[in-house]
From TrEMBL:
Pfam families tied to this protein: MFS_1
UniProt-recorded name of the protein: MFS transporter
Places the protein is found: Membrane
Keywords (A to Z) from UniProt: Membrane, Transmembrane, Transmembrane helix, Transport
InterPro entries: MFS (IPR011701), MFS_dom (IPR020846), MFS_spinster-like (IPR044770), MFS_trans_sf (IPR036259)
Protein's membrane topology: Multi-pass membrane protein
Transmembrane helix among keywords: yes
Major facilitator superfamily (MFS) profile domain segment(s): 14-427
Amino acid sequence: MTAQTPSLRYAWYVVAVLMLAYISSFIDRQVLTLLVKPLKRDFGVTDTQIGLLIGFSFAIFYTFLGIPIGRLADRRSRKSIILWGIVLWSLMTAICGVTDTYSQLFLARVGVGIGEAALSPAAYSMITDLFPRHKLGTAMGIYNLGVYVGSGLSILLVALILKLISVEGMWQVPFFGEIYPWQTVFLIVGAPGLLIVLLIAFTVKEPVRQQTSKAKVEMSEIRAYFSANRFSLLSLFFGIAFMAFSSYATTSWTPTLFVRKYGLAEAQAGILLGAIITIFSTAGVYLGGRYADKLTKDGYPDAKMRVGYQGMLIGTLLAVTILAMMAFTSAPLPVFVVLLALICFFTALPYGAATAALQEMVPAPMRATFSAFFLFVVNIVGLGGGPLAVGFINDKIFGDPNQVHLSLACTVLLGCGVSCLLLYRGLKPFVRSTENARLAVN
C-alpha cells in the first residue's frame, strides 16, 4: 500500500470506523424521541416545543456551522476536525442530562449540533479519496448506515433504559444535584463517543487528497461552479432534504403515535420502531448504494440520482396509502407496521446513492464545502422542519394530541412527494454536472 493508493481493506476499515462515529452521533441526536411524555410532564412543554427541541435546536447551528467547517475540511486535517467534533457532541449530550429547565436543555442540544457539524463534510471527503468511482456508492451507503443504525439503536436503547428506571420522582447525582431519572439516558449515551475518539486517533490516517495541485480553491470559484450547476445541485439538495423531512418526522413522532393511538407503553413503542428502523432502513440505505454501483457498471450515467428517484416514487405511493388508511379506516396496528417497514426501506434507498452522487458532481478540491452546503439544506429542511411540522400541525390544525397519526401521515406524504418530483427533475442535469466536474480537474 502506498500513500497515494491505499488498500481497499484499509479503506473499508476507515469507512467502518467513520460509520461507528456516525452511529454514535445519531444515537445522541435522536435520543429525545422516546422522552416526549416525561418531557411534557416534567418540563411542561407543548408538542410544538418538543418539535423544536428534537429538530430545530439541534439543526440551527449544525447547519450554519457545517459550511465553514466544510470549507476548513477542504484545507486542513479532516481527521482532526472529526476528533474535536466527537469530543464536543459527546460532552454536550452528557450535559443534557443535568439540565433542569427547557431553555437549558435547548442550549445543550444546540451544543450537540455544533459538535456533530464536524463529522459528515470531512468524512465524505475522506471516503471519496479512498475509493474508486465504481465502489463509491457502496462505500457511502455503508457510511450512511450510521443514520439508520444510530436512529434505530437510540430508540431501542432508550426503550430498554426506560424499562430499567423509574420515570417518577427525582434522583440525586453527585456534583449536579437532583435530576429526573429519564435524564440519565443522556449520560449513558454520551460516554461511548469518547472511546471512538481514541479509535480514530490511533488507527486512522489523514488520506492524501485527490488532485492535490488544485486542492485550494477560492470561494469565488465555488460560487461560479455552483452557479453553472445550480439546477442539478439544488434538485439533489432539496430532493434529499424533503426525503429527510419525512424520515425525521417518522423517527421523531412514530413512538408517540404508537402510545397515543395504539396504547403501547413507551418502551414497547421504542422496541418496535427501533427494530423496524434498524432492519429495514439499514437494508434500504445499504442496498441503495449497491444498486447505484450496479447501475453505474451497467452504463447508466444518472445511476446515483436514478436510485433516489425510484425509491421516493415508491415511498410516495406508500405514504398515500398510509394517509388514506389513517383517515378512512380503523388502521389496525399490524397493517400499519407492515406499511411503516416498507416506507422505511424505500425512503432509505436514496441516501447512500445521493451522497455518492454529490461527490461525482463537484471537483475534488470542493467536495467538503459542497457536502457542507448539502448537509445545510438537508438538515435545515429535514431535521429542522420534519419534527416541527408534525407538532405544529397537531397543535394548530387538528388541535388534538390524539390526532398525531394524521399529522404524521400528512407530513410524510408532503416530504415524499416533493422529494420524488425534485429527484426526477434532476436526472438529466446530474449527468451534465458529472461531466463538468471531470472537465474542471483536467
